[in-house]
Amino acid sequence: MGLRNSYVLCMALMLSFSSINCIDITTILGQNPEFSTFNKYLTETKLAEQINAAKAVTILTIDNTDIAGLSGKSLDAVKTVIGTHIITDFYDEKKLFEAIGSHAELATLSPASGLAAKIYVALINEGEVAFGSAVAGSTFDAKLVRTVKTETGVLSVLQVSQPIVKVADSAPVNAAPEIVSGAAGNVASATASVVGEAPESEVAGAHAPAPSASSRTTFGFIGAVMAFASIFVAL
């Protein structure tokens, strides 16, 4: 009898330890009503299933107000956007700061292909942590708001200010997201501004790119024509 009790106890302990790293993201986000829309999208796109099966994952959640722009979009478009908010590794605030400076591309669960499925983290303005798509020309507009929940090494839920990418409803899943530039109308280069440097749209007095050789040739020809015209008029 004692042997049987020991066996049952061992089985109970094994089951207990095996469930330690079990993630139930729907229940976790369900404790925060402000994330109910984001939570609903995770279920509808089946991203919740991938999160729950992960050994380590970071969720960049968005509140109901800031995610309202996805209303009415197709499920594929929603999954493309929401997928970029699921990083396939553990990043709490401390680890994010450690990642800043490494120029690392953070892989996500976005179904988009190539760089469109990856994001960067950077410091902008007065030391704010922000996220941007790894696609060239992206801006860092999705700012870190707060830590919602963390389980060291396993799960990190962070709130960000807005979607990292914006896609047209008709955009195919394997296409690069339609990146919208910042309020100033300037588009920052993700690869050039990651980590420790603000995107161009945040830097005062950013220099415009130098004209190409073809542009200089065109301007030189026009100048020569104008000079000859001036001489002819003077005669």
TrEMBL record:
Ubl conjugation is among the record's keywords: no
Q: PROSITE patterns per the record?
A: FAS1
Q: Where in the cell is it found?
A: Cell membrane
UniProt KW keywords: Cell membrane, Glycoprotein, GPI-anchor, Lipoprotein, Membrane, Signal
Q: Which Gene3D superfamilies match?
A: FAS1 domain (2.30.180.10)
Please list the residue ranges annotated as the FAS1 domain.
Answer: 22-155
Q: Which domain of life is it from?
A: Eukaryota
Q: Which GO terms describe its cellular component?
A: plasma membrane; side of membrane
Give start-end of the signal peptide: 1-22
Topology relative to the membrane: Lipid-anchor; GPI-anchor
> Is Membrane given among the entry's keywords?
yes
Coiled-coil ranges (or none) = none
The UniProt entry lists the main location of this chain as: membrane
Entry's family note: Belongs to the fasciclin-like AGP family.
Protein name as it appears in the record: FAS1 domain-containing protein
Taxonomy of origin reads: Eukaryota, Viridiplantae, Streptophyta, Embryophyta, Tracheophyta
